Amino acid sequence: MNIVEPDLCIITSIALDHESWLGDSREAIGGEKAGILREGTPLVLGEPDPPDSIMKEVNSLRVPIKAVGHDFLLPDEMDCSLPAASYACARQAAQILDLKLSESQFRDIASNSRLIGRKTLIDADCKVLLDVAHNPAAAKFLTDYLKTLNISGDMHALIGIYSDKDISGVISACHGIFKSWHVTDLPEERAASADYVAAQIVELDVGEVQAYANIDSAFETVQRVVEPQDLLVVFGSFATVASAIEHLEKQQDNA
To answer: Which residue among 28, 122, 127, 203 has the highest number of C-beta atoms inside a 10 angstrom radius?
Structure first.
């Protein structure tokens, strides 16, 4: 983050994640995020409740700031895959950098921009939605989106997640959303075992659960039991989504 000198800095939100690197509190994480700030360089801040560590650095470096809730608001409605704070911050950045985009042009760009692995919908044997949500804040964003979908059947989860994540927090954020949970092992040292995650799901009592040795066996079982009108949501880590994409591509090639 310190390789180039920025014309503008953006901090969209502060949530607990990557704690072994950034710290185990919002104050500590805010201090690390504030490392991108430069004296006199504008900051667009999308976090409505910024930690003191950020504001202290803003004041110390005399950073001109545009803050959500003070200088701009989150959009009520939008048609894009970005969180509202990211969209609003990008709009402010475009204005500060004088990119001369009209509101309709910006909305058109945002609505046609897609991040693979973020609310990515795929038609397979059943509808599959891929999302890299791997912390409680992202899981809440995902579940809020799922509630807006017009799904006539049930929703099912396929999750693989790293052991250093807030696993119970991610699961709790999805309470009441999924009829069944399908938990896969991941071939990485950081991964939490499927049995451990399944035990967390049982303890939190959020739905039926089954564990699998790998994502291929998980898909084989899930796609046999779900109905065409159901939605399978794959999330928990970038590795889980990448493995799901690889599986679905192989499945399509063999069709």
So the answer is: 127
